[in-house]
Amino acid sequence: MRLPARRFTAPDPDDCRDMTDVRAGVDEIDRMLVALIARRQGYMDAAARIKTDRNVVRDEARIQEVLTKVKAEAERQGLSWAIAEPVWRQMMERCIAYEFDVWDELRAPKMRSQP
């Protein structure tokens, strides 16, 4: 799934004049976030397909690596770590649970239909 290039159509936060402007900006960001998280989910599908051992689905070293990278990017972008950390931790936990489900589903014995 290729993401389309997007430009913001809502006003910048500093240019908002009323709550309608604010809500338009938040709604636009939410649509973008859904598309990005859907793409991230696609990578969980790929990981479940590629990993041959269920025991490596949860990778603590990778979790810490992601958090380190996200913290650095959050600082660079001016995003509060008080917001970023719990969001990423929860997203990673849900993605790991999803990957386990997909991993199991891909390797479940297929039921043959009865004639």
Describe this structure in words.
It contains 3 helices and no strands. By secondary structure, the protein is mainly alpha-helical. It has one domain (18-107): Chorismate Mutase Domain, subunit A. The termini are far apart. The relative contact order is 0.10.
Write the layout of secondary structure elements.
Layout: H1 19-50, H2 60-77, H3 81-107
What would you call the shape?
A: extended
Q: State the helical fraction.
A: 55-70%
Residue fraction in strands:
under 5%
What is the CATH class?
Answer: Mainly Alpha
In the CATH hierarchy, what is the architecture at level 2?
Up-down Bundle
The computed structural class is mainly alpha
> Count of helical segments?
3
Examine the coordinates and then state which fold CATH places here, giving the name of the CATH topology: Chorismate Mutase Domain, subunit A
Low-confidence stretches: none
Number of domains: 1
Cα distance spanning the termini? 38 Å
Oligomer: single chain
* Most strands sheet: none
SSE sequence, one letter per element: HHH
The CATH superfamily title = Chorismate mutase
Mean pLDDT score, rounded? 94
Radius of gyration from the alpha-carbon trace, in angstroms: 19 Å
Please give the number of β-strands: 0
